[in-house]
Amino acid sequence: MSTHSEERQLLAEADQRALNYFDGIATRPAFPPNEAIAGLAALDQPLSEQGYPATEVLRRLDEIASPATVSSNGPRYFGFVIGATLPAAAAAERLVLAWDQCASSFDNSPAADALERVAGRWVTELLGLPQDSAVGFGTSATACTLACLSAARRALLARKGWNFDGDGLIGAPEIRVVVSASAHITVKKALRILGFGINRLIVAPTDEQGRVDPLQLPVLDDMSILCLQAGEVNTGEFDPFSDLIPRAQAAGAWVHIDGAFGLWARASSAASLAADVELADSWTTDGHKWLNTPYDGAMAICRDADALASAMNSDAAYATASRDAQKNLTLEFSRRARGIPIWAAIASLGRDGLRQMIDRHLRQASHLATRLREGGFQVLNRVVLNQVLVRADNDEQTVAIRLAAQRSGQVWFGPTVWQGRPAFRLSISSWRTTDADIDLLADLLISLKQRSAP
Ligand SMILES: *Cc1c(COP(=O)(O)O)cnc(C)c1O
Q: Where are the N6-(pyridoxal phosphate)lysine modifications (predicted)?
């Protein structure tokens, strides 16, 4: 057992090491060099019988692992729409760690309960979603989609008089699930886990930008769930909600929106991209992407608060709580108060600060697209959001330029396949990314293209 002063010293040392890491955030390689990755082998020690002193554990962690991290918290990481961490959110997370709250309900943590309620209200206000929606703070858009879709299923079955909690699925009226042809893999994962069966999903065809084509919308009825998206991962596009949602609802269907990153457009000057998305029944979105909060923080938002609270209820004789306690809105029973860094991010930005951050990313994406087009690249999408989808003169050159850019250590972004051919995808979502970082990225790609054979 360590004494209070030893514990204090250890935490101070962790803070110091974190600050040193942070001081290098803008200059460290965007992806770790090979030597650093090879160095990770040193972690592969036999399981110790007696354990090591905590200062030694911390030292090894920092000296071996810090150099092998990806600089996703830096300014020039353009992969996977993942964002960095805002200072207020990072600071809140540090304090919350000291609290070590089990944020299941008011009884476990009045502070967490109050903060997450406020955060939920602010999120629905910023996104322009119905104010009395339930907001569950879950680990990921994946987990939150699972929560929303289980609420959808339970509610549709209840309308037909079927008791899902008691009788399960066998013999239940059939639910038809219609998903966009460009639905994110995690939406399909949630549906698969819930037992809907990938082969039984009805696919809604999409246009060349990845949006559901209203003319080809499959037939919907009052036992259908329609999964649409705000922010397609490659193009950043939005399904035509104004057309689709009223039609689905007239048929009695439940509409779920995957808005992992794109829903935040609602807090920007480009809110009209997602016009009428508030008409849907449920939404998922991430904090850890465009809001720039730490992992893992996401939200399940459900218009019918009771539907989510019933589907996710986990009241036990020894642990009852109000229906809208977080343990009754998410998968987790014991849980971290992941709504608190979200609360802190929003409290520090305010409506204006958030709008400015998103608007800046939109402007930077369109500037990047212009520069790359001028530099001879093909930009494959319309660049309505923060995603720029790019190809060079041919597939070999596209791949070679991406690999060379990754090797440079100056930037990082990932590959994708668009309409059957390789492309690369540049996502602008870090609050740290400046206009100069965007020009550096454009200069680098253009010079790599000039140097590579056509
Ligand atoms: C990232 C992403 C997801 C999954 O989000 P997680 O929080 O990583 O589970 C779902 N949909 C879209 C469009 C995404 O970009």
A: 289
Cα-based distances in Å from 172 to 156, 396, 453:
11, 52, 61
Q: Are 265 and 231 in contact (CB under 8 A)?
A: yes
Question: DSSP for 301-318?
Answer: EESSHHHHHHHT---BTT
Q: Which of 81, 289, 425 for mutating ligand 1's site (highest number of atoms within 8 Å of CB)?
A: 289
Report d(CA 29, CA 24) in Å as an integer.
10
What would the pLDDT profile of 325-369 be if each residue is shown by its tens digit? 999 999 999 999 999 999 999 999 999 999 999 999 999 999 999
User: C-alpha angle with apex 133: 248 to 273, nearest 5 degrees?
Assistant: 55
Q: How many CB atoms lie within 10 A of CB 294?
A: 21
- pLDDT at residue 319 in the model: 78
Q: Which segments of 95-247 are extended strands (E)? A: 134-138, 176-180, 202-204, 224-229
CATH class of this structure's domain 91-346: alpha beta
State whether the beta carbon of 184 lies less than 6 angstroms from ligand 1.
yes
Whether residue 141 has its Cβ less than 6 Å from ligand 1:
yes
Q: What is the DSSP letter of 326?
A: G
For 287-419, strand residue ranges (E) read: 298-302, 378-379, 387-391, 414-418
Q: Is 298 in the pocket of ligand 1 (CB under 6 A)?
A: yes
> How large is the average pLDDT for residues 268-289?
98
Sign of CA dihedral 97, 98, 102, 107: negative
Where are the extended beta strands (E) located within 224-328?
224-229, 254-258, 282-286, 298-302
- What global pTM score does this model have? 0.97
Digit-coded pLDDT (tens) for 19-34: 999 999 989 999 999 9
Query: Hey, is 229 helix, strand or coil?
Result: strand
d(CA 339, CA 70): 25
Q: What are phi and psi of 238, to 5 degrees?
A: -115, 140
